[in-house]
């Protein structure tokens, strides 16, 4: 019972037709044939999501401006940096007219931003040149098969830049949720200076020896606010099978950053034990697609159950 040879062939045929870039990227990156039919590893589950789980909510969450509305709907009193301007192209952005400091971003992309703390001619030139180059790029993530990025209009926007008393950005908390429960968190401190990155498990225990390229001699401030951060993240994550919620702690208040549907394309640089722990909490049977009522999805879900699928 479970997966017949015909059903396995159909699953692979659909993957290769529907998301060839995603399959190609995964195979090249991992240097192996992915376990797509019954995915177990985190990277294989992420590939499965790219291929099959076309949840419309993924589009709204991926669009950095639309995600604000999703966040407010789920947590009405959440604080979000002020949106100063939004438009179609960087040449329309009145850089000199906005109150400093601010940050300019694309509605798609990761790391596609520029910080503006002054409007000297060289700053204006740098920002405009950078975003003109970004405008010429295809949607972020298209090579990895991250389809949601191509489903909304690309825009450029400016938002208020949060800085502490020493001019540093607030600590960035990235919380990984599966089915409404936080299973991992890492905190980035002093992103544009001497960056420190610390990891914590679901019980808020510090995890040492992770990602050696970042310094590990800093413990996040405001540890007493972790429960408040996790509670906000839980409300924002809802009951999704998997999502990362990015939050800032600024002046002892929790601020929404963004949702992340495909963190690092599925290839997190964590220890094998940490990856296994994260993946074991993510059960694709609770995904939007397998619960959608689609005929093939229902057959797929039944096969997983009959095969006694273990995440």
Which descriptors would you attach to this protein?
single chain, 311 residues, alpha+beta, six-stranded antiparallel sheet, four-stranded antiparallel sheet, 32% helix, 19% strand, globular
Structure description:
The structure is a single chain. The chain is α+β, with helices and mostly antiparallel strands and 311 residues long. It has a domain at 82-161. It is built from 9 helices and 10 strands. It has a 6-stranded antiparallel sheet, with helices on both faces. It has a 4-stranded antiparallel sheet with strand order 1-4-2-3, with helices on one face. β6 and β7 form a beta hairpin. The longest helix is centred in the middle third of the chain and has 15 residues, at 121-135. It is globular and about 65 Å long.
Number of strands: 10
Order of helices and strands: HHHHHEEEHEEEEEHEEHH
Label the overall shape: globular
Which secondary-structure class do the elements indicate?
A: alpha+beta
Distance between the termini: 18 Å
- Sequence of strands across the biggest β-sheet: 8-7-6-5-9-10
Mind summarizing the main beta sheet? 6 strands, antiparallel
The residue-averaged pLDDT reads: 94
Low-confidence stretches: none
Please give the count of helices. Answer: 9
Helix content: 25-40%
Radius of gyration: 20 Å
Beta-strand content estimate: 15-25%
Short description:
The chain has 311 residues and is of the alpha+beta class. It contains nine helices and ten strands. It is globular.
């Amino acid at each position: 019972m479970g997966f017949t040879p015909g059903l396995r062939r159909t699953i692979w045929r659909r993957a290769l037709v529907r998301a060839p870039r995603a399959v190609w990227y995964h195979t090249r990156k991992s240097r192996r044939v992915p376990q797509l039919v019954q995915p177990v590893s985190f990277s294989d589950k992420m590939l499965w999501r790219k291929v099959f789980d076309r949840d419309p909510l993924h589009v709204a969450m991926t669009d950095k401006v639309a995600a604000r509305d999703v966040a407010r709907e789920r947590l009405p009193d959440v604080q979000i940096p002020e949106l100063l301007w939004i438009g179609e192209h960087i040449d329309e952005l009145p850089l000199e007219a906005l109150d400093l400091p601010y940050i300019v971003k694309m509605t798609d992309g990761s790391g596609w931003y520029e910080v503006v703390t002054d409007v000297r001619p060289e700053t204006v030139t740098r920002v405009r040149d950078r975003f003109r180059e970004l405008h010429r790029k295809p949607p972020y993530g298209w090579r990895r098969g991250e389809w949601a990025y191509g489903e909304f209009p690309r825009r450029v926007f400016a938002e208020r830049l949060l800085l502490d008393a020493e001019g540093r950005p607030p600590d960035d908390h990235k919380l990984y949720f599966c089915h409404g429960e936080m299973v991992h968190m890492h905190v980035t401190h002093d992103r544009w200076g001497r960056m420190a990155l610390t990891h914590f498990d679901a019980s808020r225990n510090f995890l040492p020896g992770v990602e050696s390229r970042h310094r590990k001699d800093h413990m996040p401030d405001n540890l007493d606010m972790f429960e408040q951060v996790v509670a906000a993240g839980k409300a924002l994550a809802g009951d999704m099978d998997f999502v990362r919620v990015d939050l800032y702690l600024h002046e002892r208040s929790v601020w929404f950053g963004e949702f992340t549907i495909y963190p690092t394309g599925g290839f997190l640089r964590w220890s094998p034990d940490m990856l296994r722990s994260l993946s074991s909490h993510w059960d694709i049977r609770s995904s939007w697609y397998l619960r959608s009522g689609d005929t093939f999805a229902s057959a797929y879900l039944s096969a997983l159950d009959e095969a006694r699928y273990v995440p």
